[in-house]
Amino acid sequence: MDTGPTTRPYRCTFWRDLLLVCAWCVVPLACSGDESAELDQPAEAVDSPAVIPTPDLRDAEAPVIEKITKAREQVVQDVDSGGAWGRLGIVLDAHGLYDDALPCYQRAGQLDPTDHRWPYLTAVVLADDDPMQAISHFERAIEIEPRSSAIRHTFADTMLRGGRLQEAEAQYFEALKLDPENRNALLGLGELAVRGNRLEEALGRFSRALELEPYDSEVHEKLARLYTRMGDPAKAEQEAMLVKAFPEKAPVRDPIRAEVAAEAVNSTSVIRRGLAHTRHGRDRDAEAAFRQVLESQPEHIKALLNLGAILVRQGRIAEAIEQLRTALSLAQDNAEVHSNLGVALAYDKQVPQALEHIQTALRLDPNYNEAYYNLGWILEAQGKTDQAQAAYQRALELNPVNVRAHNNLGKVLASRGQLDEAVKHWRHAVAYSRENPEALFNLAVAFIQQERFGEAVSLLERGLQQDPQNLRMMAGLATLLATCPEAWHRDGDKAVQLAEHLVQRSEGKHIPSLNLLAAAQAEAGDFDRAVGTSRRALELARASGQTTLEQLIQSRLRLYQIRKPYHQEPPARNPVAPQGGRPLEESGGPGSLGDDRGIRAIKTPRR
Amino acid sequence: MSPSLSHAVGCCLVILWTISGCGKSKPPPPPAPPQATSQDVPWFTEISQQVGLDFHHESGVDDSYFMPQIVGSGAALFDYDADGDLDIYLINSADRLGKTVPAPINRLYRREDDGTYRDVTTASGLGDPGFGMGVAIGDYDNDGYPDVYLANYGPDAFYRNNGDGSFTDVTSQVGVNNNEWACSAAFIDYDLDGYLDVFIVNYLDYPEPKVCTDSAGRPEYCGPSASPPVADVLYRNNGDGSFTDVSASTGIGAIRGRGLGLICEDFNDDGWPDVYITNDGDANFLWLNNGDGTFTESATITGAAFNAFGEAEASMGVTAGDIDDDGDLDLFMTHLRRESNTIYRNDGDAGFMDVTGASGLGTPSMRFTGFGAAFVDLDHDGDLDLVVANGRVKRGVLYDGADPQSTLRDYAEPNLLFLNDGQARFSEAGHLAGALGQRIGVSRGLVVGDIDNDGDLDVLITNCNGPVRLFRNDAPKQGHWLIVRAVDPALRRDAYGARVVVTVGGRKIHRTINPGYSYASSCDPRAHFGLGSAERVEEIVIRWPDGTIERFAGRGADQIVTLSKSLKLDPS
Question: 3-class DSSP state for residue B473?
Fold first, then answer.
């Protein structure tokens, strides 16, 4: 059983001995053979030693020790419980203690042969060391649970790693039958098609995977090299750029392995979980995760840094500054801390101090593109657009897929009348980000300026899909659908829906929204309603003394009364006012959108 | 648009530097060998002590988990005194606390006529005290004597060979000043002007020790993601004894990575040398030479950045060879435990294809963390076999045979030998590896060369905080051999970048003149050919670096030949 003290120099023998005694009291030692030889056998044939693993936890983090200890205690209390053994295996596996997890999974499989998780997890652990040893365990898991697509595709991956391509293909097909949206199966089959020089088939598989996971680095990487193989270097380059923009692989849809990952309580895993929350906008969960780490490790720089960032995002600037100052006191040469503190201070209107920290970050790491972006952001807010532009450009030199820098540089360029250049950057900002309503909106406005109304409509629709409550997007789209100079882009009914929503949001008191609704109703052919809505807007405008608006509404009302809808003239080619990061009422709005005033007055929530 | 708030992950990213649990289980079983037979003569015999190689690498391991202590170091086989045999230069690390007495320095061992090695460090002046990682060998001043570039943690060093057995530190004189943490370097004439330039692979921005934790929260060496990446550096040789940093103008400096290894070869067969960089946990780089003084990073579009599963692996060492006999160079690189080593087949214009699974090289490597590697026809059967040096970067179970007194014993692993069946299908051959597979250490550099000029290639492996080991090739030979040294007399040096094609029985065997591969090391610059049963070669064709092609007459096998470029050849 024991490989001897020389093989385990870090063992905590007291704990091991105590628990071994406990375990041996109740579990007959079934086997004294070579463990490694036993691993070759399928789960049901294995008679694993019933020795509870004693991982070396010297200097391990307290939550990890606690978690493993509890799981071990469960096994000690109920050594015949497959569930307890399996859970101990999961907890050990989650903390990278694979060699200790393995016998637990095997024991669990012996005690509870009906649970497919144990042979599957046995296989997964083995597959990372020796894929061929894992085969029989995969087969056992499939025998117990033939309907799991995840088990099939993991098995297929393993066969592919081992060069057994036909068997891999068969399993991928089964996985896809069970779950037609199994991305791994699609990618696996595509990969095999490439190997078989069936390039069109591969393209089909990868394209389907892309529909399912548009921001998956693996899909873009596979497409990049496929296009090279197909002799299309331009598309290959485009996909390669997207690999840079979306560097993460999509998570594998595997509930069993997700169960393992969820058990990890080491600080790195908790922080990673917090970051996942951050990416999905779950700020409270993210904050809780970072604070959880700080409870046991108050000087954990990464936790402080991330907590500071999430607090800034929530507008809790004073708290953020406090956390980041703590981080700074612990890591004075950390460029990220300086950069983030600079941002927090800028929000707190301590601009000179903010700039000082950003400059320090850049001194510490002259290639820190995010710090250049932050520098540009602060300078732009100060009206120093030349310097801001230089900072954004430097950020983009260092990282061509920095979407924030693209967006803000676009704004600066647009404000100078360089609309074509701005459009290039906004296009990049849209292409290289999962969701970027600001860039989408800015690009849509630019398209309107360029009389590319169809593209503008598409972008605004896409923006609303990403953020259905974005009122600025909603107003822009409603305006276009109601009043676009080009008839084929107008859709009165849809415009009415959107405008009604805007009116409801303002409880019917928002004059430009009413004006927009009237235009939409007219476009939909409901002139009676359009007249009524327009009159209501007119009354409110008179009551509030907004004479310019009153005149505008009157001119539209006259059209509706003679049963004519209002349509915009094609816009003049004016520069687009900057949009990014500010509510529309601050920024001035998209100058030539017909009903831009309606948009401007709506309180747009800061995202 | 809101400002950018960076989010950081914890120090130890287990994805990249995977740990194994300490303690409970036995070490992963050694590769399952076929049953040994009486004909299974060990292919390697260790002769380090026998020939007087007493070097012991020192990296000053303490409780600081200072990363450079676990990453070095490499070695070089080169004929520094131009006497026709290979001398050995061994890179040492350093003790950051200064406790090791005497302080570790690099060492040069001269091969004597009786086959032993003599430590000539002092006389040579090559006892560099820097925190050494890698070494590159090349004759930068075209004086006929190979010079030495040292990739260090901290300032690199450049030594000019004086031609009289001594070297002079010319680092500041030639104008190179790379102060990053460099791991590997290579000489490459990227602009084909006849002067060797220097490409340096930098690893991390890691100014001071920091302790990370493994997945259980135990102290451990950090993984690469805990530190920012850095840009690599290219120095152009001005031809007057000085160098200019052209990283920016060539495009090399535009992308940062966590580089460990490199190989410079003409991967797309356009006549211009390219550079492949192995990055630790980041996508690898393939810098394709545009022929106009610039490079374009093309690894993703050519399929050489990520493995078949779209994973950026923790790439360490790298080598290249024409394993499928189609005339182009395929790539092999080593990785962490729980990642397989990976082989990318070069499919010409279609790019590279990860064929690891089918090659048989993946599965046996998943238990190990590979560093140095080399393709070499060990038994002269005409195909390229493979040797791989292994050693962990995170603690794991202790192997039988590891030195229990070693401070890094929990990082030690066996090295691997793979045999090619002639169809680019490899099988692990631990039963034949002999001493090479039995000496368990934290192996890093692996260099191959014919140290005894007997026609087969021997292997030298360095060990982090351990002894260097020289393995003599004793493989039973399946055929004949030829070694070609390709020299450009106008440049008075080996023609780095030349492609040598030998025709045997109608088959063309492609090799290159290039010592810079494996990990942090420099190998025998001569091209080695296993010829199988052929007793003579029908023709030798060399494509010289300037693009000229020269044909040499056939000749008998089993000899070392030096082929010189004709001075009459016109590149046009």
Answer: strand
